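Protocol step 6 of 9: fold each sequence in the batch and record its structure tokens directly after the sequence line. For illustration, a two-sequence batch is reproduced in full.

Sequence one:
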Amino acid sequence: MKKQKTRSVKSASNSSKQSKSRAGKRSAAVPAARAASAKSTGTSPARVRAILQKLDEAYANVNCALVHETPFQLLIATILSAQCTDERVNKVTKTLFAKYRTPRDFAAANPMELEQDIRSTGFFRNKAKSILGASKKIVEEFGGEVPRTMDELLTLPGVARKTANVVLGTAFGIAVGVVVDTHVTRLSERLGLSRNTDAKKIEQDLIHVIPREKWILFSHQLIWHGRKVCQARKPRCVECTLEQLCHAKDKTV
């Protein structure tokens, strides 16, 4: 009887150890699966490289859609583009830049007349105020030339990091950050490149995962992709070159 009891105890003990071992393996597998999932949907170097490769294939040579001939014209056009389409801005600047040709011309403009010149871009009073202020400061403090540093550009009325990054990257080829507009904000969230909603925080997230030599082109690529394919209300996922890399909740496929 004692031997039978001993064997029963040993059997129960072995069974318990096996159960614990299986449970341990299962618990260890959970973090591993989560890590694999994070790699496939997050900012692992391999995934970021795959995204950049797909963007290069689709938008190899895209540039800023705002029509301009000089850094100053680009600055004015970018100020006007806030809460307005580039298409509308280009229609306005076609006549605007013929009427006001230099920073001095804008600085000397009649505020009420300038407001009417840019009225169709929306928020025209604030934009006119910013354009007049930026133009005067460029004439008085920068010798009529658009400054080439982020710190100096940020001293101009109406200029925040987005506008400064557009001018530095497109006009001067200087990469100090990533342009974060509504398209870049939307696509960064959908692609899992940033969980933030604030433009400054999104920019910081992006510059930590996107190689610096890609910052300028990457901004343009996301903006073009946002306009053409990854639209806000009805993303055209069937046509999207990034569809297999995207795990957005609002995908349409």
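Sequence two, same batch, same settings:
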Amino acid sequence: MDIMLLGHWGAGLRNPRSKKKKRADGCGDGAGSPTAIESRFAEARSRLGPHRQQLIRAIVDHCEETCFLSSRELAKRYDVDAATVVRTVQALGYKGFGDFADDLRQHLMTRITPYTALKAATRERRSVADHVDHSLDKALDNLNLLRSNLDRSLVVELARLIHRSKRILVVGVDFAASLSYYFAYGLTTLGFDAEAPVGSEGNLQHKVKGLTTRDLLIGISFGQCIRVTVEAVQRARKQGVMTFGITDSDTTPIARYCERHLIAGVVSPSFLNSYVAPMALINSIHVACAHLDPKRSLTQFKPTNKEYLSGARWYREPKGSPGDAGRTS
């Protein structure tokens, strides 16, 4: 199991230690706008019996501990049959448990903080090495989902947009700044006028303001999405600039406000998002850009060929140094 089970809650599925303030619809903590799973619960609530309502509340209110569990594991946690869990999920309008689990993870992404994520992880009975393995397992899961679900035609479409654009502005802040820098730097090496703005929010606003209808803005953010990234997308669209997003769900603000978007999961059992899948997605976009016009790409890289083979780019041990002992003269 991915999150340590805290034991069964007893009759009525109530957690006596929970003092969380409930939303008006009886689900969640009132932070932000309703998620997909909260909206489904509010709409279906009148059709659900008390026991099913309590089961959904219990699962959703403690999503940091339940979102990685299977229907069988949830049934064991709450002392019900696995069939009861599945039927309750279907009563919310989901075709199967997998769709419910996807929305539950997205709900978690909009509610969890680094503190609560780390706190939940510290409750697990794992060694430090086990936590490391767990994080690697989740990163691999994200990567496998990307490979299975990626719309290759949309990757090619983005590559074509990049080729047609005069300038490309890649916007990602906070931890996503590392992704935006890597994305823009890769495009620059391919000969595109790409930039990942750094510095103040005002600097970003000025960069977006300078875009025209011949340019492209790529926004990268996940979960609730960083405000300045979403606002950059909104501002660019008002100016007639084409916008493309990289995010982790079809329901995020980046997905809603960008004209097109690609999805890469960032699910992690730790206090930080896992960026393995987004990095792999960005790399695939670089590959598409290179092979869309291979002659152009080869022309761009040819002047650097000698530098890569024998130039001063690489570190060399001075002759006579201990590190030079194994080298031939």
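Proceed to step 7 once all outputs are recorded. Observation for sequence two: The chain has two domains: 11-125, 147-301.
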